[in-house]
Amino acid sequence: RVTNTTDVTVNDCKSIHPIEVTSCSGHCDTESMYSMGANIMMHSCSCCQEMKTSIKKVQLKCSDDSVIDHNYVYIESCKCTPVTCENQKTSG
């Protein structure tokens, strides 16, 4: 999990304090293996995705001096999640 800080701007409103913005980043296992029985390359892939998220609230101050609440998604944790790979027949 990678954390950065940034200001949030929505319409004419900007966050009073910078917020922590999270993202998932990292290497996950991928594998290609030939299947004799099926005569195809079998691909196994996984990708780094969010596992647990929460909704956080930030206060934004608008150009007319009003203050509004804004909800955003905060990533609590990440993990390597299996994804579908395209299996293609080998040429030959």
Describe the model:
The chain is mainly β and 92 residues long. It has one domain (2-83): Cystine Knot Cytokines, subunit B, CATH 2.10.90.10. It contains no helices and 7 strands. The chain has strands at 2-6, 9-10, 13-15, 19-23, 30-35, 40-62, 67-83. Strands 2, 3, 5, 6 and 7 form a 5-stranded antiparallel β-sheet that branches. Strands 1-4 form a two-stranded antiparallel ribbon. It comes from Sinocyclocheilus rhinocerous.
In the CATH hierarchy, the architecture is: Ribbon
By CATH, the topology is: Cystine Knot Cytokines, subunit B
Shape: rod-shaped
How many strands, which pairing sense, and closed or not: the largest β-sheet? 5 strands, antiparallel
What structural class do the secondary elements suggest? mainly beta
Rounded to an integer in angstroms, the radius of gyration calculated over CA atoms is 21 Å
* Number of extended strands: 7
List segments where confidence is low: pLDDT < 50 over at least 5 consecutive residues: none
Strand content: over 45%
How large is the count of helical segments? 0
Helix content: under 10%
What is the assigned CATH homologous superfamily? Cystine-knot cytokines
Mean model confidence by pLDDT: 88
The tally of structural domains comes to 1
What is the terminal separation in angstroms? 43 Å
Just give the CATH class: Mainly Beta
